[in-house]
Amino acid sequence: MRKENRAGETSYDAWAPAGGIWTPWAKPALFVHMDKCQLLGQSLGDWRAIDVRWAPEPRRATALIIDIPGLEAARTGVALAEIGYRPVPLYNVTVGARPLLAVEPIGDCLMEASAALTEMRIAADAPPAFLLDSKRLKPDIVPVPGHFDNRWMVTPQDFPSANLMLARGVGEAIVVQDEDRPPLEDLAHVLLRWQEAGIRIRGLNVKGTRGAEDISVKEPSMFRKAWYRVMVLAGFRRNAAGGFGGVIPLPSAGGMG
Amino acid sequence: MSASPFLTSPALTHDEFDALVRRAIFDCCKWDPQLEDSPSLHDAPIVLTEEAWSELGRMSEALAREILAAEQELVDRPELHGALALPRAMRRILADRAQRPSAGAARVARFDFHWTSDGWRISEANTDVPGGVNEASGLPALIADHVPNARSAGDVGAAYVDALVGGTDGVTRVALVHATAYTDDHQVMEYLARRLSQRGVVPVLVSPAEVFWRDGHAHVSHDGSLARIDRIVRFFPAEWLPNLARRTGWRHFVRGGSTVQSNPATALLTQSKRLPLVWDRLTTPMPTWRALLPETRDARDAAWQSSDDWVVKPAMGRVGELIGIRGVTDERVWKQIRRNVRWWPSHWIAQRRFDAVPVRLGDAMAFPCVGIYTVDGRTVGAYGRVALKPLTDWRARDAAVLVASAPLIEQRTQGLRMMQLA
Question: Where in the sequence is the domain holding B161, given as residue range(s)?
Fold first, then answer.
């Protein structure tokens, strides 16, 4: 059942090119929603002015995980593509009215950057820069009744396994954040698996003055529990309103019927 | 063992598969095309013989008849609910006979069949919120072009939408109730929304907390006021409903709701994998279920820890998570399952293990699971999952299910090979 979504498909082709070695991990959700978004083409801005000198020279052995606020992560992804990384958007997020997370600007940026990305002719074996939104679990907006709760989280199944990373020669991952803090807990589930398998994990604060430093990933709650994924999916971490994924109910509308 | 019900077709080429994935994403709302290192789609379809498809259809319709009758009886048998491992709040509402069971229509179910050394067996039924409708409807049409003389097993989405709104005047607004931030769930609802829109119906994608109940009728907020809903499609598992605040009125999904639901939450009574434990106490005969479902016991009554003959499953498990098979399940997971069964034995079952027969599907020898959908008791299509080991869990890939026409069998040397496993 076909539905025309030219903006979404064109953008997806640019960010997840057919045959690309990291393409399978690019999340399509935001691209598929582009036909529902008001895309103004005003979110990318002057990406060439973004300072990515903190990034090491792209080489096959080092992957980046950009875990800063979503729009900045997308813009940084474009700047990293310019110097030879393959940005991989992992925004596994839905779109609704009055969302907690403003994802339309991210979609807008992804669409606007498509042409530039296509023209860059990124090397087939370019190292990946996985793009996340550090606000995914803690948006700036305080949840109030009527908001669409579109928070999201990552699971180990959203990333390549440590074995595959190592098989592709990736022996190091740098987690890029905009403050000095441990990796977010959902990401820690991924990183600790990688670290245990021998991948070197380093952290870098784009606002700091120090370069990338080795980090020892602390064991997150429920690490390696068989039911971690099922608990995530089954909503054991949802708020009382049924979200992730619920509109916070209007008190005046509660208790009807 | 009978002759294999499967034919096999070659795997798609790399380029064909890439194109299929792309179309699945945008046409079928398949937004999870990759899980860790593996694609979530299989690169070859499951092709059934016409005879096998007819047999599966007949058995599924019998299973659907029996399960709906069992649900009807169980609604009025609260003394049996304790054995089903239902959440306490759900049991309380189910037992409240002052409110009639909520209205239901377009009853959809999926029965998961496996080909075994003893013929077809089912591992479970999804009678509450069966997923995969988008894959079941869209994938076969996309892949059928690559398989001569084979057809889709049916358009589940079309049949479901027909049952929801077809022939009913005044159905203008349908609420698609789900956990909206979960893309796995949202993709199914988005697909149905598209199909409903094509029929001129307004789909409203909402969470259960966003449904407001007035005098038993469901409403949603729309342009600043409450709009009445004509039908509800619930894709939010019934056992999660008690997580909602009481003030949301979630009990109307179970009892007291006048808005027609597909499915009403009373379906949870038969979704429980502990249902076979009360069969003998039901007046409803379950002959097809007894013939197709392997022997099921309370986990305390089977030697599953020391024997390879048993599988342990959580009563409310879905998508194959936390299923334990000695020697198949990872040792670390096996330990966790053992501990959990020890702590909460009444929430688990042990099921006698069947001997699934591997089949060549494309380039892989694999264990297919054929999920047959019924809508209002009629077989309407199928959804396949392909596992590389005899356990269908999150690692299993989705596969299109096709039915071979007679000419295909005759022309099998022209690109299609008959599987002869008997």
Answer: 6-272+357-418
Angle at CA of residue B13, ends B12 and B14, nearest 5°: 115
**Among B17, B26, B145, the residue to mutate for chain A (most A Cβ within 10 A):** B26
Residue pair B122/B292 in contact (Cβ under 8 Å)? The answer is yes
Q: Which pTM does this prediction carry?
A: 0.88
Chain A nearest C-alpha distance from B393 (Å): 11
Distances in Å between the Cα of B302 and the Cα atoms of B75, B86, B297, B352 are 29, 22, 7, 9
Look at chain B and report how many structural domains it folds into: 2
ipTM, interface predicted TM-score of the complex: 0.83
Three-class secondary structure of residue A66 per DSSP? strand
Kindly give, in sequence order, each residue whose CB lies less than 8 Å from that of residue B301, ignoring residues fewer than 6 positions away.
B350
Is the same domain home to B177 and B312?
no
Residue A241: C-alpha distances to residues A93, A158, B180, B261, B268 (Å): 18, 26, 12, 21, 21
**Alpha-carbon distance values, B154 to A145, B136, B144 (Å):** 42, 8, 12
Best of A157, A166, A196, A229 to disrupt the B interface (most B CBs within 10 Å) is A157
Q: What is the pLDDT of residues B362-381, one digit of tens each?
A: 998 999 999 999 999 999 99
The string of pLDDT tens digits covering residues B138-189 is 999 999 888 988 999 999 999 999 999 987 667 889 999 988 777 888 899 9
Residues B327 and B342 in one domain: yes
Q: Which among B35, B31, B23, B235 has a CA at the least distance from the CA of B140? A: B23
- Which distant-in-sequence residues (6+ apart) come within 8 Å of A121 by Cβ? none
Each residue's pLDDT tens digit, B384-410: 999 887 777 777 899 999 999 755 444
Interface of B with A in 303-362 (CB under 8 A): 318-319, 321-322, 330, 332-333, 336-337
Indicate if the pLDDT at residue B64 is higher than 60: yes
Q: Within this chain, do residues B196 and B344 fall inside the same structural domain, yes or no?
A: no
Are B256 and B364 in a shared domain?
yes
Shared domain check, B47 and B157: yes
Q: Which of B309, B331, B352 is the last residue of a domain?
A: B352
What's at B45, amino acid-wise? P
Note whether residue B288 is domain-resident: no
- And the tokens for A57? 């020279």
Final residue in a domain of this structure, among B352, B375, B393: B352
- Rounded to whole angstroms, the Cα distance separating A211 from B299 reads 55
- Computed on alpha carbons and rounded to an integer, the radius of gyration of chain B in Å comes to 21
Average pLDDT value for chain B:
89
pLDDT of residue A253: 27
Residue owning tokens 């990872």: B330
Same domain (yes/no): B317, B211: no
**Are B143 and B25 contained in the same domain?**
yes
B300 and B412 share one domain:
no
